[in-house]
Amino acid sequence: MSKLALMLALFSTLFCSCSPSLVEAEYLLSDGELACVSWIENDHLAVLLLPQAVVDGFATYSHSDPAMAVVQLVGLPSSNVRQASYDSLVSFGKLAVTLSATARGVPAGDVDAALCLEVLSEGASHLRKTFLADTLASITGQSDPFGMLETVKQATVFDLRTSLALSQNTDWELLRAHLKRYVEEIRRVQRKE
Asked: Which domain range does residue 101 map to?
């Protein structure tokens, strides 16, 4: 189920319209296990997956709501912070997996986020005219969720859900500093490519 959650979050965040000219991030919080941050720099989409517990913990520490806390934690200006239900993410993820498995002729169990992204990228111009686009638009709130995917030349997922562990003694300022540094390194690589 975690693999499905990863793909769901990836594609929900991926299709929120990020602005390629400004480096602003789209933030997606779910009522489930993860929070997603995505941004585009030099036609390279980066998707950062965080445990929702980290966002909630930092929100408690900073006495702010999770929408503000995730922006403070990551350090990128926000173009949009959205909340999506876990059920809607699961529904879209199942559709994306089925589409990818059918398109490539592989079992659904062999479909990962990279394959889904590849299939959806290749078919973005055609998928813009389908009910899948309508389903995705209802999740993201965007009128043309596949439009952005056509402009992206490369996409990378950075899954930190198993890398960030919390304890009663979590140093939130140190965690925030390290996370901001991590994001800056990702952006540095994006600028070089």
From this structure: 2-187
Residue from 108, 96, 110 nearest 15 by CA: 96
Phi, psi of 84 (to 5 degrees): -130, 145
Asked if 128 and 147 touch (Cβ cutoff 8 Å), the reply is yes
Quote the radius of gyration of the chain (alpha carbons, Å).
16
Question: Is the distance from CB of 83 to CB of 67 less than 8 angstroms?
Answer: yes
Report the candidate in 36, 9, 47, 7 with the shortest Cα–Cα distance to residue 152: 47
What is the distance between the alpha carbons of residues 153 and 23, in angstroms, rounded to a whole number? 16
Nearest to 119 by CA among 109, 105, 137, 135: 105
Of the chain, the percentage scoring pLDDT greater than 70 comes to 88
Query: Exposed, middle or buried, 22 (CB in 10 Å: 0-12/13-18/19+)?
Result: exposed
pLDDT digits (tens, 9 = 90+) for 138-173: 777 777 878 877 778 787 888 898 888 888 899 999
Q: What are phi and psi of 105, to 5 degrees?
A: 70, 35
Q: Is residue 193 part of a domain?
A: no
Q: Say how many domains are in the chain.
A: 1
Residues 48-64 have a mean pLDDT of 94
